[in-house]
Design a protein that fits this description.
Layout lengths: L11 H10 L2 H8 L3 H15 L4 E3 L4 E3 L1 H25 L5 E7 L1 H18 L3 E7 L13 E6 L24 E14 L8 E4 L2 E4 L3 E4 L5 H9 L2 E2 L6 E4 L2 H9 L4 E5 H6 L7 E2 L6 E11 L6 H28 L5 E2 L4
Parallel strand pairs: 3-4, 3-5, 8-10, 9-11, 9-12
Antiparallel strand pairs: 1-2, 5-14, 6-12, 6-14, 7-8, 13-15
Organism: Azospirillum endophyticum
Keywords: DNA-binding, Transcription, Transcription regulation
Protein name: LysR family transcriptional regulator
Length: 337
């Protein structure tokens, strides 16, 4: 059999990373190599192909037309090799499915129902990584990610509450399934509900505002969107690192928190909270299930995706009916959510 005229295969991963990032430095970080090593790999590949793949600028690089064409071929080839390796490596023993997930959605929504998935899929061991940082699905730090944020290419209305969180480091090859909208709702102790009312059809809050650091725009954007105002007086304002901490502070009567309704519905002490103000204001972003295309054929991923999308549908349907029922009374109670 004649020898195949292939380029040096050890250079392809470095070239692929550099082409995706348009940076030798970021490619080196991804592959745990030096910037010089990536530069040498690309140079060796260009010599073997007798073709320039990148234009080197003073502070950046860009692909040549030949480089763009070759990058698509290399990316598809590496993805196919990865899928083939996964098919060969699968066994019938217990396999781990790693999920990177936001801390509060993990503790309040996923964990209470995760046993249903493991009972139906005893051969799959689920490992959760709690994080609000953008997930690097290309580096396979997790099989699946659950994040909240803006979907690229989706239109949002001016004035919707902002979500300043990036969901992934790169959207290349990532499939996104929407789980829930992000609808913010104020919540406080029932004894304080009279301090958050509608006056002239607009919300007026006379309580300390409880902020969550990962969503620092939530209160000001919600008040602006609803035409409301906050009169905090001498109580000041509070800030906590995660939504579940803000909910605990609200339950203790320390002020009024603003939290996505899907989290309020799952809060285990929700009977001790009131929703004094109606809200149908959708944030400029949603909760998503994120999977890289190289993982889509994995039976573990397929099983979890089907299960969680069904659970999300049930949660949305239950939330809509529960909120409608609770908003018919004043103040709105969460005890039936």
């Amino acid at each position: 059999m004649p020898k195949r005229p292939l380029p040096p295969l050890n250079t392809l991963r470095g070239f692929d990373a550099a082409a995706r990032h348009l940076s030798f430095t970021l490619a080196a970080d991804e592959l745990h190599l030096t910037q010089g090593a990536i530069s040498r790999q690309v140079r060796d590949l260009e010599l073997a192909l007798d073709c320039q793949l990148f234009r080197r600028m003073t502070r950046r690089i860009e692909l040549t037309p030949e480089g763009e064409d070759f990058a698509r071929t290399v990316r598809d080839t590496l993805s196919e090799l990865e899928r083939a390796a996964q098919r060969i490596g699968r066994s019938r023993t217990t396999r781990t499915l790693t999920i990177s997930i936001l801390p509060t959605i993990a503790s309040l929504w996923l964990m209470p129902r995760l046993h249903l998935f493991t009972q139906a899929n005893p051969g799959v061991e689920v490992r959760l990584i709690s994080s609000i940082e953008p997930s690097n699905l290309l580096a396979h730090e997790a099989d699946i990610a659950i994040r909240v944020g803006r979907m690229p290419g989706r239109r949002y209305e001016r004035g919707q509450p902002r979500i300043d969180l990036d969901m992934v480091t790169s959207w290349d090859g990532v499939q996104a399934d929407e789980l829930f909208p992000d609808i913010l709702r104020p919540a406080c102790a029932p004894t304080l509900a009279g301090e958050a009312v509608l006056e002239g059809g607009r919300p007026v809050v006379r309580l300390p505002l409880i902020h969550t650091s990962s969503r620092r725009h939530a209160w000001p954007d919600w008040l602006k969107a609803t035409g409301g105002k906050a009169i905090t007086g001498t109580g000041g304002e509070l800030e906590f690192g995660h939504f579940f901490m803000s909910l605990d502070a609200a339950r203790q009567g320390r002020g009024i928190a603003i939290v996505p309704d899907i989290l309020l519905a799952q809060y285990d002490r929700r009977a001790e909270l009131a929703m004094p103000l109606p809200s149908e204001v959708r944030s400029a972003g949603e909760y998503y299930l994120l999977i890289h295309e190289s993982r889509l054929d994995d039976p573990r991923t397929q099983a979890f995706r089907g299960w969680i999308l069904a659970e999300a549908r049930k949660a949305r349907d239950g939330l809509t009916s529960a909120v409608d029922q609770n908003l018919s009374t004043s103040p709105s109670r969460l005890s039936d959510l």
